[in-house]
Amino acid sequence: MLERGSARAATLTCRRPTATRRGGVGVWSRLFGAGEVPRDLVGDLLEDYRAETEQAAQLLQHAARARYPQVADTLRRLAEVETRHAGWLRDRLALLGAAAPAVEPGPAPGGNQWQRAVAALQAAQRKRKRLIEQIVHWDPDEPETVELLQRIEREDVGGHEAYEGLIMRSDPHAID
């Protein structure tokens, strides 16, 4: 602490903020309307539909290249779940007056089974994160859509264990 006669007196607070943040902070910005970017429910559902459809197609591609039948079966089961989710989203889009687009997935990423399994898990985690963000955003305004997204998210959580099992049983150094 400096003496009274010195040029700078000690204070209990900072002179200026050490860090500032612009934009919304989630719940607070929603409550007070600051930093809100308008979102489109149909656009969000179309994005979800596209992600579910692409994931299902890539899992089927991965299953076709699997070396072991039990791995292929697991991947097909995961693809069935994703296809079911895409169907639910397609039905919801139809109720909202929108048509689900045709989705052309690219090749499954990764040079071997382990890399493809890791890529599939990462895609599933990104999808789940996006679903949670949409659930939070649409919660009070769109209860039917939120219930659908929560159902999809719950089923996706159950699939993470299968992805992790595939990764653990795969050799990261194997060559296809």
Uncertain spans, ≥5 residues at pLDDT below 50? 11-25
- Provide the residue-averaged pLDDT: 82
For the termini, the CA-CA separation is 69 Å
The tally of beta strands, per DSSP, is 0
Task: Count the DSSP helices.
Answer: 5
Question: What's the CATH topology label?
Answer: Ferritin
Strand content: under 5%
Protein model, in words:
The protein is mostly helical and 176 residues long. It has a single domain, classed as Ferritin, core subunit, four-helix bundle (Ferritin, Up-down Bundle). Helix content is 63%, strand content 0%. The protein has 5 helices and no strands. It is elongated, with a radius of gyration of 23 Å. Residues 11-25 have low confidence and may be disordered.
Topology of helices and strands:
Layout: H1 27-32, H2 41-65, H3 69-95, H4 113-138, H5 143-169
Helix pairs in contact: 2-3, 2-4, 3-5, 4-5
Feature tags:
elongated, Ferritin, mainly alpha
Entry summary:
The protein is mainly alpha-helical and 176 residues long.
